[in-house]
Amino acid sequence: MIDWKLILEVIGMLIYATFMGFIFMGIERKAMARIQRRIGPPIYQPIIDTLKLLGKKESVTHGFIYDFGPVFALGASIAALLFIPIANFQLFSSNADLIVVAYLLEVPMLGIMLGAMSSGNPYSAVGVQRGLLTMVAMQLPYGLALIALIQHWGTFKLGEIVALQQVHGWSVTVPALLLALIVFDIVFQAMLGLEPFDIITAPAEISMGPMVEYGGKHAALLFTQHAVQLFAETAFFAVLFLGGASNLLELLVKQIAVLFIAIFVASIYPRFTIDQAAKFFWKWPTILGIIAVLLTV
Amino acid sequence: MINELMVLLFAPLIAGIAAWAFDFRGVREAVGLTGALVPPILLAKAYPGILNQPLSYTLKVGGFNLSFQLNALNWYFAAIASLVGLAMALGMVSTSRSGYEWLFALMSYTGVLGVFISQDFVGFFLLWELMTFASFMMVLRNNRHESLKYFVLSIVGAYAMLLAIAILYTKTGALDFATIRQALYMDISIGAIGRGETILLFLLFLTAFGVKAGAVPLHVWAPGAYSEVNQSYTAFFSGALSKAGAYGFILIYILMGAKLYTELGTFHGHITFAYIMAWIGAVTVVVASFLAVLQEDIRKLFAYSSVGQVGYILLAFGVGTELGFAGGLFHVLSHAVFKGLFWLVTAAIILQTGKTKFKDMGGLAGKMPFTFAMGLIAVLSLAGIPPLAGFASKWLIYEAAISAHMPLVAGAIFLGSGLAFAYVVRFLYAVWFGQRPSDLDDVKEAPLPLLIAMAVLAIPNLLFGIAPGLVTEYLNKALGSSIVGGDYFKLVTKTGTYNALLVTIILVLGLAIAGLIYLYGAGVRRISVTNTYQSGNPVTEEFNLSIRKNFYRPLAEALDFWLKYSWDRFYERLAGIAEDFGDAVRQSFYNGNVQSYSWYLAIVLLILALWGVL
């Protein structure tokens, strides 16, 4: 028996998520430009960019893994997206819980790293190093925030976390989880690769780091991956702390709210160096995270 | 009629002795391989009946009855050890040219199997020492200093265990596990063994098993010893031998769990003695993983990583719930297969290049594609990427630790997996990618037996990753309750669910979509590795632009305060002080002066006289 409704939902969600992800990228650029008193590109600019890249006559490659990296990254982002309950669409979320989704959201990083490493470019290598160290640094506060959440709601299942929030109020309204939210939001900045944690790409220092070698269709794949990832991560945030959503519009409002906080923070702060970032993550966010988990035991 | 269990136990040892005696090329390998093949075959044959009817055998040696039993739980350990043992033997066909190595490698194989199936402390201790001795001899062959370090810590562990056994014997009058367990259980109401003695026993066993498992701060032998042996043997050393330590921790539960619980009680809702284990595990995970990230030698990196991964197992056992045991036991399997695979990949790299430092390697992916693919499977499994075996077991440990309300311990797992990600990528980058040093231009793919050995360990990584239910179902039966629900492909706990097959399918689907976009795009042109963006400066082959040394320098800078302290240096200093003290004693007393010697004699006689001996 084939569940046609589910298949249609999946296809629809993929198209919607990719499109909205691109729009989010456009909003990010536009908002950043307005804060800096520039006009900025139109909101659909990322879509045009991606289509242009996809239309290039020829791409260069450094070998199989170089091609495989972006493909793997996009594939993993899609997989992560389909296990998150998005608004009233449950998709496959009853088959994998929070830990699985948290891991799946990290897999694309490995794909990008694989491709970047195989290019042999030193800027890529520095980017890989910074990416992994950022991940190491943020992992502890990130984990603590998730643990606090799980302990409070007593379940790992995303669907149940949403349902419980609809009965008992959003996670943010619980004092301990408000702390967890603050921690998660700081980590979120690093997950999106925005200032002050845009150490990985650092355009002015290492020319986009891992992405430096990519052009043509490879870059188009990475843009698409970024769009899907952006949508998935903002949705994940909304599901965990903002009570999920009952329809796509409500979700969109929450996603954009989350996104704007990230943009505002990003446009105020300059970039950390990597050891500063590590020391920062292991100080305040970790302390707040520990308080949060101890309050929810 | 020779008992099957005895064949299982002694086949590797006999094969090892034969391989050593007939040390000719071809014969040695054939005999050794046959010996290593016997245990997996016999264990597979025993599988259908093992859950209902344990196999037992008693061996009478010099007044002692050594009883052996193959039951549901130790079948699991023995099966893992024999799988890794088989892979080790296949790998050694390629990497070893000496009967000496075959003898001691197979001797430790027998030792490990014996530790798992012994049912009394005589056999357990003897085979434990056989295992230690054989692995010590393997290290001794390559590096005396490291072997001595291993020797001293093993001796500490052995004395601790002997002392614990002696105490147990005086208190209960028994040496076999069943009676001891019974006696300790009865003692809860009798109270013949006091609180202090129970704690002492616990600490002694913790030391004994902690040394073998490489728990911090007793881990210092592991990096040196794991590095300084034939790398095919390390697959067994780290994959199976360290599991003897993990098995020991389970033995603590089996023998004295109830007694410890009544004596030590609970701490904030956690069973105290288990909580101690969980913290030992958590500290081991974090410390060893940080050190692994900063290593510059491929063998050292995996050695520290191995210590860290065994930390996960201790942590999971320390959680003390059924889910924790299931997770820990699953991780015993997945650690054995992915770390065994890593060591075989390392063996292949070292065999083919002769290099061990990251700074001398690079760009090997094109030269050794099969080994690279195997290394990638191991990387994905260790980093816990779904759907591989490493993820399934880690997932269970996460669920166990968080549902048992051990948030800080669970936080250590999060940190540990971030670090694991970092060090495996380091391995990938330094060995396989980037510019190839010109002296590695004629490196060839690893020899066939080694490749088969890798495949033997890679298949379980995939199989138990996609169908983790195969393992959990067995564990449910072995532990006697349905801990993890679901079917072959789906794991269901009270609070979470993980459908490995569906994750695989969706991942493949995602890859297919991405692949279609890739195919839709224009054709590709292959360019060389030096043809990259360099801010406008063209580079030629002479420049090596890959970062091979101090890859994670910023992390070392962020950690400089902590890196000032080292257990290794602490022990070395302790050894130095002991040596200085010994020198001082020798110089002041044994000064070669006859007069002072006669004075010593006089003083001793005087003391004896006063004591009333004379």
Give a structural overview.
With 297 residues, chain A is mostly helical. Chain A has one domain (4-296). Helix content of chain A is 72%, strand content 1%. In chain A, helix 3 (64-82) packs parallel to helix 10, helix 6 runs antiparallel to helix 8 (175-191) and helix 10 (216-241) packs across helix 11 (248-268). Chain A is globular and about 55 Å long. The mean pLDDT of chain A is 86. Chain B has 614 residues and is mainly alpha-helical. Among the domains of chain B are: 268-470, no CATH class; 566-611. Chain B contains 23 helices and seven strands. Chain B has helices at 4-21, 27-50, 72-95, 99-117, 121-142, 144-172, 177-190, 195-213, 221-227, 231-264, 272-293, 298-319, 322-353, 369-382, 389-403, 407-432, 448-466, 469-479, 500-520, 553-558, 560-563, 567-589, 594-611, and strands at residues 55-61, 64-70, 266-267, 270-271, 490-492, 497-499, 523-526. In chain B, strand 5 (490-492) and strand 6 (497-499) form a beta hairpin. In chain B, helix 3 packs antiparallel against helix 17 (448-466) and helix 4 (99-117) packs antiparallel against helix 5. The longest helix of chain B is centred in the middle third of the chain and has 34 residues, at 231-264. The model of chain B has no long low-confidence stretch (mean pLDDT 85). Chains A and B meet through strand 1, helix 3, helix 4, helix 5 and helix 6 of A and helix 15, helix 16, strand 6, helix 19 and strand 7 of B.
